[in-house]
Amino acid sequence: MFPFCFEWVWDMGHLVFHGGLWYALSIIGMGMTYCIIKAVIDTRRGGSSHH
Amino acid sequence: MDSALIPEGVKRCPTWKFLLALAIAGAVLLWGVVAMLMVWFKGLNQTNMNDYYGFALWIWADLAFIALGGGAFFTGLLRYIFGIKELKNIINYAVLIGFICYSSALLILAIDIGQPLRGWFIFWHANVHSMLTEVAFCLSCYFAVLCIEYLPLVLENRQLDKVPFFHNLSHNMHETMAVFAATGAFLSFFHQGSLGGVAGVLFGRPFAFRTGINIWPWTFFLFTWSAAAYGPCFTLFITWLTEKITGKKLVKDNVVELLAKIAGWMIITYVVAKIIDTVYWATVTAPSLGFKWTFFYSDNPLYGKWILLTEIVLCGIVPGLLLIFGPTRRNPAARVIALLLGVLGVSLNRWVMVLQVMAVPVMSFDKWVLYYPSWQEVATTLLPVAYGVILILISYRYLPIFPQEPELNPIAPYTPANGAEATAGGQAGDESETEAVGQAAPAGA
Fold first, then answer.
1. What is the rounded distance in angstroms from the CA atom of residue B136 to the CA atom of residue A18?
2. How many contacts, defined by CB atoms under 8 Å, are there between A and B?
3. Hey, are the CB atoms on A17 and B172 less than 8 Å from each other?
4. Burial, B35: exposed, middle or buried (Cβ in 10 Å; 0-12, 13-18, 19+)?
5. Residue B133: its chain A contacts at CB < 8 A?
6. What is the distance between the alpha carbons of residues B180 and B123, in angstroms, rounded to a whole number?
7. Given an 8 Å threshold on Cβ–Cβ distance, is A1 in contact with B123?
8. B144 and chain A: CB distance < 8 Å anywhere?
9. What residues in B contact A16, CB-CB < 8 Å?
10. What residue spans of B43-176 are helical by DSSP H?
11. Alpha-carbon span B320 to B262, nearest angstrom
């Protein structure tokens, strides 16, 4: 649910619950975006990382 | 036949054995799928749930899977946040087991909600006053984290790893894994806790109700704690089982003993907290609601005081002490008994917190009501078990899950002297052995 939805109420419950959800999803999304973009750049440069 | 996909430097069973194992697990899976489709198409009348038992076998299995899968978040926390390097040798398997447990839990929920097409309602039309909303949010997000933790392992398959993009992606995901592990630990803390919180806030059911801190009842903290304590027990138990089935040593003893020792201390501290909680509930909380604690363990054919003693003493104190003391921890038989008792203990705890809570009469005219699952419920509960077996079979065969396996099970490099013997072995049916020896030859050269 987003703040522009008719069900949204600006109270502590909505802020904490949905704030936590977006926070977690943001970290997961940004983390994966970083990994994918860096992998594309590494691949285009022709490099091969080792682990 | 599939030797090109098998990791280098390890030996796997012949293809026919692998396919036979898949077929056996697949038959159970198919039975579960039939029951699942019956529930989806005909409705929840296929179950024995009723107004008493809105939470039944599925929710017990759900809670048990989630607790047993707790080894993934706790081992990840120890490995990536606390930096215990030895655990890198078992973290892959912990992640795989966690992935299976959490995907199974979500599958069971998808069956349990009756209308899976409306599953997204809990995210969009969220009831922010419900602990179950917190569970749904954190469970879904944490499953995404587990997928991210499992993906690099898949990309390390011999053939996929040859693709430069996959190789680089896998490397980058390993590099940033600490961020995902920390997020996973944060999410796990809340969803494990909220599952306990669901029972603890039921003020209409004095058997489950607990006091606590602010909005969180004590069961919130006990559930998180028990998952962190018993989850690694399940990881270690399945590792032991895998070693027995494959006939190989897959993880070094020092790694197993370290995780077992940590689990032992977690279990003992948890059991102390659980005893304090139980004594306070029996002497203060339950009497304040008009009940003697013995009421909850009498006048019914199943739930006696034995269940409380079994959970706390036999499946709590005993495994905790066995894992803490060095001589018993180092003894494989005693260690496995402790791990098994731990797994049974946390499953029993979840059973009590779901099914005994529902069985206890709450009105003066009520009676104890016992519950028997329908075959559809049993089949759909075994479905995730079969799925887990299949995923472990496939992952073990094609992915480098155990980093120490090649070192612990060296394959003799090909030489003219042993070549004839290896070939003879291959003709006798162990085709993978011949392939693995062939693979090892260039590495040794």
1. 12
2. 81
3. no
4. buried
5. 17
6. 22
7. yes
8. yes
9. 128
10. 57-68, 70-76, 91-112, 121-124, 131-155, 164-175
11. 10
For every one of its 445 residues, what pLDDT tens digit does chain B have, with 9 covering 90 and above? 788 999 998 999 999 999 999 999 999 999 999 999 999 999 999 999 988 888 889 999 999 999 999 999 999 999 999 999 999 999 999 999 999 999 999 999 999 988 888 889 999 999 998 888 989 999 999 999 999 999 999 999 999 999 999 999 999 999 999 999 999 999 999 999 999 999 999 999 999 999 999 889 999 999 999 999 999 999 999 999 999 999 999 999 999 999 999 999 999 999 999 999 999 999 999 999 999 999 999 989 899 999 999 999 999 999 999 999 999 999 999 999 999 999 999 999 999 999 999 999 988 888 898 889 999 999 999 999 999 999 999 999 999 999 999 999 998 766 665 554 444 433 333 444 434 433 433 333 2
Structure tokens at B404: 């120490």
B67 CB-side CA count, 13 A: 32
Neighbouring C-beta atoms of residue B383, cutoff 10 Å: 24
Cβ-based neighbours of B128, under 8 Å, separated by 6 or more: A11, A13, A14, A16, A17, A18
Q: Is B121 on the interface with A (CB under 8 A)?
A: no
Q: Give A16 to chain B, closest Cα distance, Å.
A: 9
- Token pair, residue B225, equals 């704690």
Q: Does B162 touch chain A (CB under 8 A)?
A: no
Domains, chain B: 15-385 (1.20.1630.10)
Q: Global pTM? A: 0.91
Q: How far apart are CA B68 and CA B89, in angstroms?
A: 19
Q: Are B40 and B412 in contact (CB under 8 A)?
A: no
B176 touching chain A per CB within 8 A: yes
